[in-house]
Structure formats: structure tokens, C-alpha cells
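Give me C-alpha cells for this 85-residue protein.
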Amino acid sequence: MGIISWIILGAIAGFLGSKIVNKTGQGLIMDVVLGIVGAIVGGVICSQLFGVGVTGLNISSLIVAVVGAVVVLWAYHQFSGRRTL
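Here you go.
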């Protein structure tokens, strides 16, 4: 995937992940960064478990990225002391 695709996927995953984890966003930049990290984490986890990771800008990759973003956001809140769920 190209950098623009990662940014778009990260923005969407970060936004959705923020809404799932704590109902408010972290801000546009932080949502995108945590979403991109989440997409990478989700891709690694899913590729290890199921043999399929983030393959492009599609629904299955978005689901993987959102799951990864939720994991990353949860961990971010645990380490930063912010309240989640």
C-alpha cells in the first residue's frame, strides 16, 4: 500500500477506534497516528493468526485496522492514565 492509502486507512481506523474505546477522539493527528499504528498492529496480529493482514484499502483491511486501533488506543489509555471504556 502507498503512504496515502495508509494515511486514509489510519484516519478512518483511528476515528472509529477512538469512538469505540472512549467515545471521543484524541485529535485529528493523534487519531491518524494511532490508527496507522493500529493498522500495522492489526495486520501483524491477523497475519499471524489467520494468514491475512492489511491488503489494501478495502473492508477486510479496515476491520483489521480498526481492531488494531482499538488495541493500540486501549494500551495508550492504560499507559497514559486516561480513562477508557
